[in-house]
Write a sequence for this structure.
DNA sequence: CTAGGGTTAG
């Protein structure tokens, strides 16, 4: 390498803007070394991959190279892989392998190509890349495989991702963590925990990345015991203090597992906090029903100079919504754009519709939707529909569903919401009309489930599922539960049939004839049977609690003198002494 | 120029 080349390279080392880069580039041209592989490489990588770079300039530079090297191609492929035109990475790769130049793809080429597949691909693109990786002999490269796993998972093919992972000749901690993260993103949290168990068996220890993935899965599954274990491990191994991600995941885990107190303790102990940390706790206050505290906490955020974002406002507005603080909510909704320069998006609007709707201001909610720029967003009409369910307002619900149908956005859940309203108003024609519609249009229903953690194991119940080995035990407890609840004032209508005939056979028959038990009732019965006296039952479910279950649970909490904490799709219910923290407002 | 893993909302 000649002296001038070294000088140019040194100049490029300190370059931080396109303006400077152009100057250096013209110097290089004057000196006749712009085609030197090293100089061209540095120029390219700056333009293609640095945040101050410029992809068109990178293309220009590249087009002037008579013999681009693998590294040159790689820079360009890498640059496009994270740009809005990530599909161009694939075109570049194709030109690279089809042109007669001496540059062959290396492992890095595939890593960048796969990043592009993650960004915008389809499973088909991943398979194409997979094929090339095989052809060029990189199928056992640990980094390439890790990227391939992620690319498949990001395109919704977690099964393919797992296959690649299983077939890897060896796996390091990054590969394991990546597989766990893939399952987290796919919301397959039980699988994520299983992978972790295997990872431990083969001798890997938890690091920061593992901890974040595990805590996220615990949060989603409500697996408090495992979460507490990860917490202790992270604390003892210093992972917690050095990494803000771990603290954030921990706060979120405690919030989602129903322990707001612990979430606050972790929050207060954290040495460094970012917007995620604050948002997680803000959100936690809201879903635990402390709307007023959420507002105070939000003010604290402003005073502390936290960089607010749109999620912050979503948390705040949801907090207001759960407690019926409509005036405050409206005030902050307006302040969001006028004082904080943040544009509310469809979710914020949806939250406002929910807020007004639940407070019974259905007309106002409709006006709000019609006046907004999101009239054609299904989220808003769906929020209205749910509010109609609470207030048993069939006419308004028909309007909401009508709009959803018009934009072809209706699903089975929407139809059964209206069916539920008809049912509670005694309109059986309406109910069958809705059922027919779901059937005829082949809409898929989401099965309801509830989880409960007993002795560190997460047990999942699905509606009407009687396939459990210990169903007799659950059934027995269920009968006792209902009888005692009735003794404490629970209206018995719903369970008349069972109460007349108290045999397990009748239980099965009840289900087979269309009578049903929501999954949370099964989970609560199981918890009562298995958890020691005095312990809190923690249930996590994927749907909202229904009025019936809510009332039954209130009575059960008194009849058995048990605290029961249920996390439904949007918030927490703390049942104690016959009442619920939501004050029946949800 | 020299590759891969993470958190909040819905």
């Amino acid at each position: 390498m000649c002296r001038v080349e070294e000088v140019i390279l040194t100049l490029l080392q300190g370059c931080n803007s396109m303006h400077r880069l152009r100057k250096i580039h013209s110097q290089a041209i004057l000196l006749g070394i712009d085609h030197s592989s090293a100089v061209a490489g540095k120029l390219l990588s700056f333009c293609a991959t640095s945040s101050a770079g410029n992809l068109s300039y990178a293309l220009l530079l590249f087009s002037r190279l008579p013999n681009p090297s693998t590294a040159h191609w790689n820079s360009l492929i890498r640059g496009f892989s994270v740009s809005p035109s990530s599909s161009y990475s694939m075109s570049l790769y194709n030109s690279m392998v089809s042109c007669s130049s001496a540059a062959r793809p290396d492992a890095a080429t595939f890593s960048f190509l796969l990043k592009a597949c993650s960004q915008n691909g389809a499973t088909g693109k991943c398979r194409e890349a997979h094929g090339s990786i095989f052809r060029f002999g990189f199928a056992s490269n640990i980094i390439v495989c890790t990227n391939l796993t992620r690319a498949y998972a990001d395109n919704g093919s977690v099964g393919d991702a797992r296959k690649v992972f299983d077939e890897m000749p060896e796996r390091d901690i990054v590969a394991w963590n990546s597989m766990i993260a893939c399952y987290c993103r796919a919301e397959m949290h039980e699988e994520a925990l299983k992978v972790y168990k295997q990872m431990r068996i083969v001798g890997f220890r938890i690091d920061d990345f593992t901890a974040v993935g595990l805590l996220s899965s615990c949060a989603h599954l409500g697996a408090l015991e495992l979460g507490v274990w990860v917490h202790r491990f992270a604390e003892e191994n210093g992972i917690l203090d050095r990494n803000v991600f771990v603290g954030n995941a921990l706060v979120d885990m405690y919030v989602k597992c129903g322990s707001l107190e612990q979430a606050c303790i972790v929050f207060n102990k954290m040495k460094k906090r970012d917007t995620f940390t604050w948002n997680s706790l803000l959100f936690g206050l809201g879903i635990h029903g402390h709307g007023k505290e959420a507002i105070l906490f939000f003010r604290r955020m402003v005073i502390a100079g936290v960089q607010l974002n749109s999620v912050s406002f979503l948390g705040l507005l949801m907090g207001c919504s759960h407690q019926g603080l409509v005036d405050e909510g409206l005030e902050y909704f307006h302040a969001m754009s006028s004082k904080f320069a943040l544009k509310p998006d469809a979710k914020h609007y949806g939250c406002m519709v929910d807020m007004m709707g639940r407070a019974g201001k259905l007309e106002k909610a409709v006006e709000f939707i019609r006046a907004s720029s999101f009239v054609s967003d299904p989220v808003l009409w769906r929020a209205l529909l749910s509010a109609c369910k609470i207030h048993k307002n069939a006419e308004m619900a028909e309007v909401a569903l009508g709009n959803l149908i018009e934009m072809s956005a209706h699903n089975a859940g929407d139809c059964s919401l209206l069916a539920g309203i008809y049912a509670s108003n005694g309109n059986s024609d309406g109910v069958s009309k809705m059922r027919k519609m779901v059937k005829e249009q082949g809409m898929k229903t989401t099965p309801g489930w509830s989880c409960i953690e007993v002795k560190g194991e997460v047990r999942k119940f699905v509606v009407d599922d009687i396939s459990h080995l210990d169903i007799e035990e659950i059934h027995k407890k269920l009968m006792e539960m209902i009888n005692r609840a009735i003794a404490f004032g629970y209206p018995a209508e719903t369970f008349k049939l069972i109460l007349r005939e108290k045999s397990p056979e009748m239980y099965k028959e009840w289900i087979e004839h269309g009578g049903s038990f929501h999954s949370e009732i099964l989970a609560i019965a199981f918890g009562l049977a298995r958890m020691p006296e005095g312990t809190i039952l923690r249930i996590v479910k994927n749907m909202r609690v229904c009025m019936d279950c809510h009332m039954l649970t209130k009575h059960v909490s008194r009849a058995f003198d048990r605290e029961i904490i249920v996390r439904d799709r949007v918030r927490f219910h703390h049942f104690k002494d016959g009442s619920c923290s939501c004050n029946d407002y949800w």
About this structure: Residues 450-580 of chain A form one domain. Confidence is low (pLDDT under 50) at residues 497-502 of chain A.
